[in-house]
Amino acid sequence: MSAACEGLSGKLLPRTLRQFIWIDKLLRASSESPQTKELMATERDAREDFGQTVAWRMAELNLRSATRSPLSGLIENAVVEKYRSAPCMRPFAANEQVILETSKSLNVLYVFNGTYDPYLIYWLFPLQMAFKQTAPRAEHPYELAMYLHSLHQNLFPTWGELFVTAESVMSLLEREDAEFFAHLHRACKKNVTVDPKDFLVELILQERRRAQGICAFENGFPSRQNGTKEILASPVVFLRKWMGEGFVGVLNLPAVLLIWDQLFMKDWSLDVMQNFCVSVLLLLKDSFMAADDYPSVRQVFLSSASQLLTADIQRAWIHLQQGGLPADVPGLNRLNQRPLVDLSPPRHGSAEAGKVCLDPGEISPTGVKDILLTVVLPVPRAETCYSETTQGDVQ
Questions:
Q1: C-alpha angle with apex 26: 92 to 254, nearest 5 degrees?
Q2: Out of 57, 230, 269, 308, which residue is the most buried by the measure of CB atoms under 10 Å away?
Q3: Which residue segment(s) compose the domain that 90 sits in?
Q4: How many domains is the chain built from?
């Protein structure tokens, strides 16, 4: 397995191989049995243990079904909201089967161990995409809940680790690109209008207090409301959000699957997550440099990342993994290299106005309306058989 993962590093896995590797990592991470034990036996034992615990908890909570927990209404509302807001989840927002599967799985997890947090909706989504069923099965939400539990308990970095990693990314940016670093901090201080819904506010503050050793917040400590706003207006908090949501909240689906493939193959190494965070941040450098206040920086952090090409993120990450210079990453964003076409009328006295130089064979990304074209394809003389056509037909 380790040799296979090493050879596949940097690649987007095909579906069957992805399922095999992800299941192997998920089940063996939580298994106390020897690594030499067959995967089927490991999975059977995990299913039995999970099922027995769920059954015991259902009896304790006096529930008829584990898919309808005491938090069902809260979970369903949160699921609908997340699917409407996250770029990679939005195409499934009207898919009742996917929405119901998400809600059921999170309810099962809550019954299993009393765990529910909104960010788990993001963590569950890649698992749903990786283990998508052609026909719904009653036990599938239980399988997904079992996988999510293992991911939560054994693989996904802790919030404390993510806090340190986000700080490391900003430190690296300060060393490698002081101008970009200074611009981000300067812009984030202008016209600050923080929306608490953007962040896991309580979680961030709790982890920060733990890191500082502050336990008795209310006993003798002044109010930290201003401090809270200052913390949430920092670029580092956006990076925590990116990584804390597994990049699901900001990237498109192929990019998310690429990142999760690498994380599973590298046993969820923090170095892998940090290099992806640096890659996305630097690929968006031009967009960030054009943003001059907090609302515009926020827009780039939360919306522009989903427009990046997956292949560019892949190349940037491989570049950094192989020891490449971070300064080279912004140039890997091919969206910044696309030629622009001026469709405005030519200015008087300027023979070159509107002229665009394109590579041979390249089609410029222009858009026109109400134009009807007739395309004529050459046909050998012996087979020529033309007929009268109306406008728009192809000959």
A1: 35
A2: 308
A3: 2-155
A4: 2
